[in-house]
Structures are given as structure tokens and as C-alpha cells.
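Input C-alpha cells:
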């Protein structure tokens, strides 16, 4: 049983570390998990603005797609 998923799929870009540019499609991976599986970021995020942007991706996904 999956209890928590550590998202470690970032790619370093000129804008910072961005999870959407990593090797794996995190949205596709999450579709295989139970709806109540918890997720956690586990990569360096350079500043508050990027944290906000990355969190918004997850909020949008969980509010609209699951």
C-alpha cells in the first residue's frame, strides 16, 4: 500500500528547479495511485515564488483531475 509519494523528478532550468521538465510525467504516475495517497516534494526549490508555482500545479491537478 502506498502511503506517501516523494516527488523527485525535477530538472534544473534557468528559472530554477521545475518538476514538469523532469524525466517522468508526474501526473501520469499519480493516476496509478489511490486518491488518498499523500505526496511530498523532495527536491530543492530556490525561492518562495517557485514554491508557489510548483504548489499551484499540484493544487490544480488534485482539484481538477482526481
Amino acid at each position: 500500500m502506498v502511503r506517501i509519494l516523494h516527488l523527485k523528478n525535477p530538472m534544473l532550468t534557468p528559472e530554477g528547479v521545475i518538476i514538469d521538465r523532469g524525466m517522468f510525467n508526474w501526473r501520469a504516475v499519480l493516476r496509478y495511485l489511490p486518491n488518498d495517497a499523500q505526496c511530498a516534494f523532495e527536491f530543492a526549490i530556490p525561492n518562495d515564488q517557485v514554491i508557489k508555482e510548483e504548489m499551484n500545479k499540484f493544487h490544480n491537478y488534485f482539484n481538477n483531475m482526481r
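The helical segments are 26-30, 48-64. Residues 48-64 form the longest helix (17 residues).
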